[in-house]
Amino acid sequence: MMGLEFGETTVAVGDDVVGRVLVEQFDHVHRTSVEDADVTVEFRRGFVQPPDGCIEIHGGLWVDHDELFVDARKGAPGFDLTGAIHERIGDGGHQAKITGNPLRESTEITVFYDERAVESNSRVLRQIIRSYNKNYASRTEVVAVNLAEYLVEALLHQRLLSNESALCHASGVVRGGEATLFAGWGGVGKSEVSGELVRERGYDLLGDDLVVVSQDGTASPYRKRMPAYPQSIADGETTYREVMAGRGPLDRGQWRVRERLGGSKSVRRMVLPSSLSGHSEDVARLSGTPVTTAVNLVVEDREEIRVERTTPEDIAERGASTMMAEIDSFTDKMRAVHAASPTYWSGVREMTEQSDRTYRQALAEADTYLVSVPPEASGSRLVEVLSNQVLSDSE
């Protein structure tokens, strides 16, 4: 087993081909002992039937008191071209048996996957599949990333809540022993702001998309692979050389072809922050950094960027709603589980309220701002305004 530490919460991951890729998604996360792990993830090859005693309560969802069985296979018709392809390359989905309510106790996850999806004797077929993916990712990477985003992070968030912490949908930076968080809905500019502050102004990166916050008013890193798009490279967020370091001609060619045919959003590479200019490799020292500033970014139809003071309660409420939306594929299942076993399984309302309380306490001593951003505003312009009116740069 491989141990990962997020704040006070430990995740133990089985030493399996998918497990190793799952661990590799994270950038210099503190490796730790797997004894008494909060969340344990193990792997089994081949799909199975739901355990005896489980009752189907929803499509692809079975429950038996303290145990859930989730069938997230993608599936395909058996007698057409799509079915024939799936028969050859395997199903990229997964099944999961989940034991223990993460809001109340340690949780064990057993993941079942189609070994054909991660192993193929055909090099040509593997290359075709990889080129079809805009990340130029192997099937093993796809299975691991889907597992992280649609299952593990949702359970990790709940387990963090039981340890007086939470995942927060925000980018975060640190300078001078103080953390600043940029929260908001996807596409509002969180990554652009944190990226420029790291590259140009000497900040350290806490996280690009998610950050761990704690009720004691501190934040800790949640650094996993981050997307680099053609336009972000052109704007100076990263460099082509850094993104493509160690990649072969087919990889580089796929980038150029997809960009030309599909546009700048049709291709990207998922890279570790520490491989890019200015992003520190020394992640452990950032754990437990006091949060002194929190900014909620919103897009509005306006001409100028507007900065106004707000309250920790306002940002917490927005943050709880955003986080529930981020893990919606799992919270949708939780609604059905709670309806079937309300005495054991927590509902989405309880998880939302607990997230709100955690955010309020985490931000209680922080300066909090609401920043309204025009759709056309550039990242550099937003950083300039924030530096002048919000960040310590303005002092």
Q: How does this structure look, described?
A:
The chain is of the alpha+beta class. The protein has two domains: 2-162, no CATH class; 165-225 and 272-394, Phosphoenolpyruvate Carboxykinase, domain 3. It contains twelve helices and 20 strands. It has helices spanning 17-24, 81-89, 123-132, 139-162, 190-201, 230-234, 240-243, 249-262, 312-326, 328-340, 348-362, 379-389; strands spanning 2-6, 9-13, 31-32, 39-45, 55-58, 61-64, 67-72, 94-99, 107-113, 165-168, 170-175, 178-184, 204-207, 211-214, 218-220, 226-228, 269-271, 289-299, 306-309, 367-373. The strands form three sheets. It has a nine-stranded mixed sheet. Strands 10, 11, 12, 13, 14, 15, 18, 19 and 20 form a nine-stranded mixed sheet that branches. Strands 16-17 form a two-stranded antiparallel ribbon. A hairpin with a 7-residue loop joins strand 8 (94-99) and strand 9. The chain is globular and about 60 Å long.
Explain briefly what this protein structure is.
This protein has 395 residues and is an alpha+beta fold. It has two domains: 161 residues, no CATH class; 184 residues, Phosphoenolpyruvate Carboxykinase, domain 3 (Alpha-Beta Complex). The strands form three sheets. It has a nine-stranded mixed sheet with strand order 3-1-2-4-9-8-7-6-5. Strands 10, 11, 12, 13, 14, 15, 18, 19 and 20 form a nine-stranded mixed sheet that branches.
SSE blueprint and pairings:
Blueprint: E1 2-6, E2 9-13, H1 17-24, E3 31-32, E4 39-45, E5 55-58, E6 61-64, E7 67-72, H2 81-89, E8 94-99, E9 107-113, H3 123-132, H4 139-162, E10 165-168, E11 170-175, E12 178-184, H5 190-201, E13 204-207, E14 211-214, E15 218-220, E16 226-228, H6 230-234, H7 240-243, H8 249-262, E17 269-271, E18 289-299, E19 306-309, H9 312-326, H10 328-340, H11 348-362, E20 367-373, H12 379-389
Helix pairs in contact: 1-4, 5-12, 9-11
Protein name: HprK-related kinase B
Organism: Halopelagius inordinatus
InterPro entries: P-loop_NTPase
